[in-house]
Specification:
The protein has 296 residues and is of the alpha+beta class. It has one domain (3-289). Helices cover 42% and strands 22% of the residues. The chain has ten helices and eleven strands. It has helices at 3-17, 31-40, 56-74, 78-97, 112-117, 132-137, 154-169, 172-179, 190-201, 267-279, and strands at 24-30, 43-47, 99-106, 125-131, 140-141, 146-149, 214-221, 232-236, 239-248, 255-260, 286-289. The strands form two sheets. Strands 2, 3, 5, 6, 7, 8 and 9 form a seven-stranded antiparallel sheet that branches. A four-stranded mixed sheet has the order 1-4-10-11. β10 (255-260), α10 and β11 form a beta-alpha-beta unit. α3 (56-74) crosses α7 (154-169), α4 packs across α9 and α7 runs antiparallel to α9 (190-201).
Length: 296
């Protein structure tokens, strides 16, 4: 089995459990972020390490490490034991050079939890509705992206992790190591497999967050060069946040609806947001207010 076949097998298994792509995906944010999006005609994909819960990928890596230990404790094949021992070390090292950038969306259009926790501090919250199909199919510059739902089910997460590790142990490189007594572990491309692991981990979250119904637009860098020169920076409550700016190769960012949050009131704000969208040539965006109460 080649590493590309491992990715195909993982994707086929994910497809069995993937929910239907909603017509609209919602990005809970602020008026200032909306202004940035429509003014630059771009989405900002932030470095995952600087987001609200930077431990997210550690959660997935932890699943891989625990599964590797279980394989290690049960196998009687000495070559597999050496491979798994090295893999556990490489999974930790992978976090040092992995660079993943994401923009988060929600399948729920008017969520009280998102109004409370995902709007920018000090700014009136709103939610931008994007055409899901266009988000998925657009040719984004400067790098290729993927759109996927977060997997919260622990049973499915473990199944995918075990599938990946089994595929790795049965890969041609690992079989060569097993069959050739003089072969060294350096002939196994651990770094490439760790990238496959990290791509999967980006799709995992602790089951306790399942009510978020999150989808992600994602790009990842690891061994390759090139992203650094494209980096931009924004400020947050904790300091600087690196991000990449993605623009459609043709046309506008696919905004189709706009919902003003519970704290935004009055016809003037409705008129101001509508006017902004019209000025930026978003002529058919439905602007409305949230119907949920939200205490300050």
């Amino acid at each position: 089995m080649e590493f590309s076949e491992i990715e195909v097998a993982i994707e086929a298994e994910i497809e069995k459990h993937r929910p239907t792509l909603p017509e609209i995906l919602w990005h809970y944010t602020s008026s200032s972020a909306l202004l940035g999006i429509v003014t630059t005609n771009s989405l900002w994909l932030s470095d995952y390490r600087f987001l609200n819960d930077s431990s997210e990928i550690n959660y997935g890596i932890g699943l891989f490490k625990r599964a590797s230990v279980q394989f290690l404790e049960t196998t009687k094949i000495e070559s597999h034991r050496r491979i798994l021992t090295r893999l556990i070390l490489e999974l930790d090292r992978g976090l040092e050079w992995l660079r993943a950038y994401i923009c988060s969306f929600c399948a729920i259009d008017d969520s009280i939890n998102h109004w409370r926790f995902y709007a920018s501090p000090g700014s009136e919250p709103l939610s931008i509705g994007f055409s899901s199909l266009r988000l998925k199919k657009l040719d984004w510059n400067p790098f290729r992206t993927r759109l996927f739902p977060i997997i919260y089910d622990l049973r499915i997460q473990k199944q995918l992790v075990e599938l990946a590790i089994s595929g790795f142990l049965n890969s041609q490189e690992c079989r060569n190591y097993h069959n050739e007594g003089s072969a060294t572990l350096e002939r196994i491309n651990f770094e490439l497999f760790v990238l496959i692991c990290c791509d999967l981990c980006i799709q995992f979250k602790n089951p306790g967050f399942a009510t978020e119904s999150e989808w992600r637009l994602f790009t990842r860098f690891g061994l390759e060069r090139g992203a650094e020169s494209e980096l931009c920076y924004r400020t947050s409550g904790s300091g600087l946040v690196p991000y990449l700016r993605f623009s459609p190769a043709v046309g506008l960012v696919p905004i189709c609806q706009l919902m003003l949050g519970p704290r935004i009131s009055g016809d003037l704000q409705m008129a101001a947001h509508t006017s902004l969208l019209l000025q930026k040539e978003y002529y058919e965006v439905d602007v409305r207010r949230s119907e949920l109460p939200l205490r300050s």
